[in-house]
Automatic annotation (TrEMBL):
<dbReference type="GO" id="GO:0005829">
    <property type="term" value="C:cytosol"/>
</dbReference>
<dbReference type="GO" id="GO:0048487">
    <property type="term" value="F:beta-tubulin binding"/>
</dbReference>
<dbReference type="InterPro" id="IPR036126">
    <property type="entry name" value="TBCA_sf"/>
</dbReference>
<comment type="subunit">
    <text>Supercomplex made of cofactors A to E. Cofactors A and D function by capturing and stabilizing tubulin in a quasi-native conformation. Cofactor E binds to the cofactor D-tubulin complex; interaction with cofactor C then causes the release of tubulin polypeptides that are committed to the native state.</text>
</comment>
<dbReference type="GO" id="GO:0005874">
    <property type="term" value="C:microtubule"/>
</dbReference>
<dbReference type="GO" id="GO:0007023">
    <property type="term" value="P:post-chaperonin tubulin folding pathway"/>
</dbReference>
<protein>
    <recommendedName>
        <fullName>Tubulin-specific chaperone A</fullName>
    </recommendedName>
</protein>
<keyword id="KW-0493">Microtubule</keyword>
<dbReference type="Pfam" id="PF02970">
    <property type="entry name" value="TBCA"/>
</dbReference>
<keyword id="KW-0963">Cytoplasm</keyword>
<comment type="similarity">
    <text>Belongs to the TBCA family.</text>
</comment>
<dbReference type="InterPro" id="IPR004226">
    <property type="entry name" value="TBCA"/>
</dbReference>
<dbReference type="GO" id="GO:0007021">
    <property type="term" value="P:tubulin complex assembly"/>
</dbReference>
<keyword id="KW-0143">Chaperone</keyword>
<keyword id="KW-0206">Cytoskeleton</keyword>
């Protein structure tokens, strides 16, 4: 494998890793926000201390604010990876590598999740 091919494969692997990490991170924030909503509802139903409720509201707000930030980063990373995958599709020496296959699978996973969630 030539140096330029190795460098391209390395970049593909890095971009795939970024998409994978951000996708997981966004999912984690969504789950965290949903869990925190339940905690907040429970505290309110039990007439918990005002400080506990305010703390739970703050944690929920923090989680909810991270979702769009992470989503924007994920969308940017997906576009960058998709551009690279599209550019490499015509090069058999690269489009037949495991890293290329992994990149395509990661893009498909994100796309499928976005279709299910209506995003």
């Amino acid at each position: 494998m030539s140096d330029s091919t190795a460098q391209t494969v390395r970049q593909l692997k890095i971009k795939t890793g970024v998409v994978k990490r951000l996708f997981k991170e966004e999912k984690t924030y969504r789950v965290e926000a949903e869990d925190q909503r339940k905690v907040l509802a429970k505290l309110k139903n039990e007439d918990a201390d005002g400080a506990d409720i305010r703390n739970a509201e703050r944690v929920l707000k923090d989680s909810e604010q991270m979702i769009p930030r992470t989503r924007k980063s994920l969308e940017d990373a997906v576009l960058a990876l998709q551009d690279m995958v599209d550019a490499l599709a015509a090069e058999p020496s690269l489009s037949e590598t495991p890293e290329y296959t992994a990149a395509k699978l990661q893009l498909e996973e994100v796309d499928a999740a976005w279709k299910v969630n209506g995003a």
